[in-house]
Amino acid sequence: MKLFEGIFNKYKTNDLNIVAIGGGTGLSTMLRGIKKYTENITAIVTVADNGGGSGALRDDLGMLPPGDIRNCILALAHTEPIMQKLLNYRFEDGILSGQSFGNLFLAAMDGISPSFEEAVRRMSDVLKVTGRVLPVTLHDVHIQALLENGEIVTGEYDVSHSVNAISGKIKKINLIPNDAEPLPDCITALHNADIIILGPGSLYTSIIPNLIVGGISEAIKESSAKVIYVCNLMTQPGETNNMTAFEHIEAICRHAGGDIIDYCIANKAQIPQKLYKKYQNDGAEYVRIDSAQFKQANIKLIEDNFINIYSDYVRHNYEKLAQSIVNIQMKC
């Protein structure tokens, strides 16, 4: 027991170096659990969003989209509850309707900083963030999806929301421009990592866009870190209709140019039928776990109940998820 406690305490310090890659609410949710185990966290975040409040600021101010960055900063911040509430506040009326105050905070910081990278660092300092939040690139990138029927859809919002209407499954994701360079600190973080986490988050609009920024996938392959994919709880209409957990991994590795996944964490629990019906009505379903495929590919599959149920939606249980991630390192 004392030996276990000693190992556990070690990984509550800076000894465990974790890099998490993604975007959206999934990544930020997971970070809330990870920060309880180590302060040595780097979140590498996509900057391809062009919808909602982030898209509006991107168009109006010519800045990189702040939304996913903001979510990760707040997840890793040590602030009073009222500050968290203020930064998450979303205006309901007027020309700011739908805009988040946290987005405006980062936009203002960008206005007084020499670069977006520096703006993110300064906001992180103000909010006493554990670890670092890094945009994957400082280039103004957009997502372009090639569908199996030959159609091309451009822009994160349209890829995420309009593919169903075109009735074409996503075959490949590209970035425009396709020569975007990664932030150097991202490459360094990947090389130094003990654990690299992909997801949870939208497969084609939050995770894969990071991997196709030049040099990111190569750095993951060169790293000695264990690479963990955290599978989504539900399929995402328009992006991953009917895709199994292993098919998610196949898409990641195809875009990364090789096999990069060592572990997959997947949920095997179910949610109340009434809530599940709501998801089904929206075109979503459970992500099926095709265990035989994982065994054949020599990818270790970790299944458990990772669900947190809220009134009308589900999220990962970030405490249990973080514990499972840290346990992987403890057992090696």
Key features of this structure:
44% helix; 7-stranded parallel sheet; 17% strand; Rossmann fold; 16 helices; disordered N terminus; 332 residues; single chain; alpha/beta; globular
Q: How would you characterize the overall build of this protein?
A:
The chain has 332 residues and is of the alpha/beta class. It has a domain at 2-46 and 181-330: 3-Layer(aba) Sandwich (Rossmann fold). Helices cover 44% and strands 17% of the residues. It has 16 helices and twelve strands. The protein has a seven-stranded parallel sheet, with helices on both faces. A three-stranded antiparallel sheet has the order 5-4-6. A hairpin with a 4-residue loop joins strand 11 and strand 12. It starts with a helix and ends with a helix.
Explain the layout of strands and helices:
Elements: H1 2-10, E1 18-22, H2 24-34, E2 41-45, H3 52-61, H4 67-76, H5 81-88, H6 101-111, H7 116-126, E3 132-135, E4 142-147, E5 152-154, H8 156-161, H9 163-166, E6 170-176, H10 184-192, E7 195-198, H11 203-211, H12 216-222, E8 226-230, H13 245-256, E9 263-267, H14 273-281, H15 291-297, E10 300-304, E11 307-309, E12 314-316, H16 318-330
Parallel strand pairs: 1-2, 1-7, 2-3, 7-8, 8-9, 9-10
Antiparallel strand pairs: 4-5, 4-6, 11-12
Helix pairs in contact: 2-4, 2-16, 6-7, 10-12, 11-13
